[in-house]
């Protein structure tokens, strides 16, 4: 059986209809849900490509799953495939990441894919830096959110100059999902650099939402 079909079949076998309607309502999703929990979706995706050594074959599977998805978990599985070696941190995932963001256009997409960008920043600092700097001034709201969130979880590895440069073009944006992302990115940076975040918040006219999120644990 084709690997994409295996993933679809296993997702349906793990479906929980009692969860599906609530998930769809919460996510305000046009695509229905199967009701599969995220850890199980991740396990199914990883198991399907276990042992694969060609990143391009994984990218092909991910693109097919994404574009032909009939349920949202298929899109989640597609994004999760990009975290599986050898596709993980391979620069060739970039066009697909951007395609997913531009066609998915919702916060669950950017939040999942931010981890893929973080991995690119760790493995390919110069290329990752250029991506974030380009996306943070994009006309596409969700690429800007992705850029802002791209260093979540880096802790002491956080590039504060890059974070600053990703935030600055977006500080006056009134969009809720941008303001929320700004606060979240600063709150996460505060885990390693609390004094820097406190000083940044004091020096900038952040929205109340961004400020509240940034200072939540300070």
UniProtKB/TrEMBL annotation:
Organism superkingdom: Bacteria
InterPro entries on file: ARM-type_fold, DNA_alkylation
Pfam families: DNA_alkylation
First and last residue of the signal peptide: none
Matching SUPFAM superfamilies: ARM repeat
Gene3D superfamilies: 1.25.10.90
Transmembrane segments: none
Protein name as it appears in the record: DNA alkylation repair protein
């Amino acid at each position: 059986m084709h690997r994409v079909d295996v993933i679809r079949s296993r997702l349906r076998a793990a479906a929980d209809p009692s969860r599906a309607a609530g998930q769809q309502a919460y996510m305000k999703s046009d695509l229905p849900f199967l009701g599969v929990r995220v850890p199980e979706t991740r396990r199914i995706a990883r198991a399907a490509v276990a042992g694969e050594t060609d990143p391009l074959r994984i990218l092909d599977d991910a693109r097919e799953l994404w574009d032909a998805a009939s349920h949202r978990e298929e899109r989640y599985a597609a994004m999760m495939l990009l975290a599986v070696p050898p596709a993980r941190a391979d620069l060739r995932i970039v066009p697909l990441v951007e395609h997913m963001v531009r066609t998915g256009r919702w916060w669950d997409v950017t939040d999942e894919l931010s981890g893929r960008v973080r991995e690119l920043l760790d493995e390919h600092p110069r290329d990752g830096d250029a991506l974030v700097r380009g996306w943070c001034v994009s006309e596409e709201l969700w690429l800007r959110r992705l850029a802002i969130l791209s260093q979540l979880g880096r802790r002491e590895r956080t590039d504060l100059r890059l974070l600053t440069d990703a935030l600055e073009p977006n500080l006056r944006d009134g969009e809720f999902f941008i303001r929320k992302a700004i606060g979240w990115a600063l709150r996460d940076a505060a885990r390693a650099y609390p004094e820097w975040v406190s000083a940044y918040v004091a020096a900038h006219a952040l929205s109340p939402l961004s400020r509240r999120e940034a200072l939540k644990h300070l």
